[in-house]
Amino acid sequence: MINTTPLSKNAAPATHAESHFDRKGLVQMILLGLLLLLPVAAYFLGHTYYVNLASRVTIIAMAAVGLNLAIGYGGMVSFGHAAYFGLGGYVAGISAYHAFDMTPFMSWPFSVPGSDSLLVVWLAAVVLCALLALAIGAISLRTTGVYFIMITLAFAQMIYYFANSWPTYGGQDGLPIYIRNTLPQVGNNLLDSSDALTYFLICFTGLMLAMALTSRLMKSRFGAALTMARLNDVRLATAGVSPYPIRLVAFVISAAITGLAGALYADLNGFVSPSMLSWHFSGELMVIVILGGVGRLYGPLAGAVLFVMMETFLGGITEYWQLFLGLVLLGVVLFAKHGVMGWLAGSERNE
Amino acid sequence: MSEIVLSLQKLHKRFGALQATNDVSLNLRPGEIHALIGPNGAGKSTLIGQIAGSLRPDEGRVYLADTDITHMSIAERARLGLGRSFQVSSLAEPLSVMRNVMMGVQALQSHSFRFWKPVARDQQLLKPAYEALERMQLSHRAWTPVFELSHGERRQVEVACALALKPRALLLDEPMAGLGPEGSAKLTELLEALKLEVPILLIEHDMEAVFRLADRISVLVAGSVIAHGDSHAIKQDPRVREAYLGDSDA
């Protein structure tokens, strides 16, 4: 039944996709291969520092994958994604703090204990970030353009100042996580999260899942509606789909991904502070998405690699490394509209 | 009432001192093309806005069949079967023709919160979209991105998008605008074939097309319907001649 319809037209877009497949697929394979193999090699050569650096790249890439879903695929330029990154981080930090102290996080109206289980922390981070994004998105998405940028920034800054001035969890000094949250033990010590390589592999798996989810989502009916909401929301409404709920759900998913990255980040550093919530970080995530290629699946990864490498290696040479970041960003915006991925892998057709 | 597909009842809309729509009542019957004409500034766009849902009337009601749609959103009206095209074509240009048409099919089948199944091979979406394109004689362009299409083809895509909704009524806003004589003739032919299935409310500047296509014509001047009838009656009407001659270079 399925193959007897006159819709053999798939041949047309397929041949187009194939002409790009080699180069694009190759670039993506190389990128992933390097990200996976370099830390493994570094680990066995005894350079834990580089393993943790790779974890950092991976987590920031994951946060940017979340933001890319909002900006690149949904056309919602959020300047407040640090709110979700930071909230995820604080969920990990506060949970570990109470587990360490053996005090409850709250005792009324019902008791919520702390937890040092990564699975619990991740679940809590995703749920809380989704709820926060639901509230912020529900209000912010009534505006568009510059107003949307500003209102998302304003909400994030409110949360930043709140964290800054709440002494219970360290205020502006931040909150240390003395022992990294753990995964349930499976027989032997295979999943020891305090091991640098194991933790990198956890982060890498998270990034892969986030990218797979994005890719799958954008091919679905929901993705089709979100794409239409970005390109022409009047057309979407005229076709019978209200743009607002579509955007809101995409915004919530985007925030949940970024929030999960935040939880991973806090556990990587053993520390969470208000700087994770600040607008600087929102801006850095935007820079990463633009560097890598807005609306490209591998864009956030390419952007994060470039950004963290420049920060680490140029930052080691000169404290004015952001001057060079600015020049690179200028180059990308002027000469490679589709970011590093567009430049390396060629432009992408929508169909 | 049940014989009338779309009905406007005593619509009023005011912008400050300007009475943009003044007591307008119109209806659309099965199998007809009802044309709405009027000089620039007569309030056609405001009226379309109130029918399609981008504007709310101050007073009056809009019915689609027996359903009061006066306070519904654009999307709700579309799902109930009000298809429309725009004066300046409004499509997602980077996407293929098929993708544009599929959206209406998708809206009709269920809500869009389906996150897993890829649309690219979803025959439930592809088949009806393809059929809508065939009706507009555009199936050979199904996988062409909209930005590569000619002006006339875009018009046809817009109508195909509306057809994907299996509409009960079509609202076409100046579909002939900017078309050459050939494109205009082709679209006229397509619309004539279409009207038996879906009645059309046609807003049009091109008088020749209107007189050829329309079963009934209403003339809108300064927010009010000043005349109403078949093309012969409208051609003869002195008020219409006056309005058009007086405003011809406005």
Automatic annotation (TrEMBL), chain A:
Q: Which residues cross the membrane?
A: 26-45, 57-75, 82-100, 120-139, 146-163, 196-213, 244-265, 285-308, 320-345
Q: Record's Gene Ontology CC terms?
A: plasma membrane
Top-level taxon of the source organism: Bacteria
Q: Which residues form the signal peptide?
A: none
Protein's UniProt keywords contain Aminoacyl-tRNA synthetase = no
Q: Which InterPro entries match?
A: ABC_transp_permease, LivM-like
Q: How does it sit in the bilayer?
A: Multi-pass membrane protein
Q: Where in the cell is it found?
A: Cell inner membrane
One Pfam family, short name please?
Answer: BPD_transp_2
Q: Name one GO molecular function term.
A: branched-chain amino acid transmembrane transporter activity
- Record keywords, A-Z: Cell membrane, Membrane, Transmembrane, Transmembrane helix
Q: What is its main location?
A: membrane
Name of the featured protein:
Branched-chain amino acid ABC transporter permease
Species this protein is from: Vreelandella maris
UniProtKB/TrEMBL annotation, chain B:
- Keywords assigned by UniProt? ATP-binding, Nucleotide-binding, Transport
Q: Which domain of life is it from?
A: Bacteria
Which ranges carry the ABC transporter domain? 6-247
An example Gene Ontology cellular component term from the record?
plasma membrane
Look up keyword Ribonucleoprotein and say if it applies: no
Recorded GO MF terms = ATP binding; ATP hydrolysis activity
Q: Which InterPro entries does UniProt cross-reference here? A: AAA+_ATPase (IPR003593), ABC_AA/LPS_Transport (IPR051120), ABC_transporter-like_ATP-bd (IPR003439), BCA_ABC_TP_C (IPR032823), P-loop_NTPase (IPR027417)
> Among its keywords, does the record have Manganese?
no
Pfam families given for it?
ABC_tran, BCA_ABC_TP_C
The protein, known as: ABC transporter ATP-binding protein
